[in-house]
Write a structure and sequence with these properties.
The protein has 189 residues and is α/β, with parallel strands linked by helices. It has one domain: 3-Layer(aba) Sandwich (Glutaredoxin). It has seven helices and eight strands; from the N terminus they run αβαβαβααβαββββα. A hairpin with a 4-residue loop joins strand 7 and strand 8. The protein is globular.
């Protein structure tokens, strides 16, 4: 009987659990300088994810969802308010030569960068993200563990929110539209 009660509670809570996909920060957080500049950010809201080019699952899944999110957001806001998407590679030694092309496979307007280990670490820390390089195998190949969360950066270059999976495009597009309204209200004050 306990397991039936537990199952019913879980089933009743499931809709609420799946709706928590975007979390707005109480206070904006400044970000350290990185490969993209504040001039790039002045163009609008930016969604930043961390990954690596040979990622077998998290990165392709997240980028596919971000493409759907950008499309869905484009139906809610003016074209100049659709967020930019930036992929930051946490494997510069392996990815530097091809990183600029990676995100474009998912959407022609997506961009991807990498930086030095210190720059990557500072940005990871500032966005409360995570990655870990695993021990290389006998060929030198190494896996990378990383979060699938996405950071939402405002045009002023501050971290404003985090997006968490599951990435429902309609719910996140609505969250991003509300976030944009709150940012505009903040600027008007």
């Amino acid at each position: 009987m306990r397991w039936i009660t537990a199952l019913l509670i879980w089933l009743l809570a499931w809709p609420a659990l799946t709706q928590v996909q975007g979390v707005m920060l109480d206070e904006p957080l400044d970000l350290p300088p990185f490969a993209f500049t504040n001039t790039d950010l002045d163009e609008g809201r930016t969604l930043i994810m961390f990954g690596f080019l040979s990622c077998p699952d998290i990165c392709p899944f997240t980028l596919g969802n971000l493409e759907a999110i950008v499309t869905e957001t484009g139906m809610r806001v003016r074209p100049d308010n659709v967020p930019n998407v930036v992929v930051v590679s946490v494997g510069p030694e392996r990815d530097a030569a091809f990183v600029s092309e990676y995100a474009k496979f998912f959407h022609p307007d997506f961009t991807s960068f990498t930086g030095t280990r210190d720059q990557i670490y500072a940005l990871i820390e500032a966005t409360d993200s995570f990655y870990r390089l695993m021990k290389p195998d006998h060929t030198g190949y190494y896996e990378v563990q990383h979060y699938s969360s996405v950071s939402v950066i405002a045009p002023d270059g501050t971290l404003r929110a985090k997006l968490q999976p599951p990435f429902d495009p309609a719910q996140i597009a609505e969250f991003l539209a509300r976030l944009q309204i709150s940012y505009r209200k903040e600027l008007a004050q």
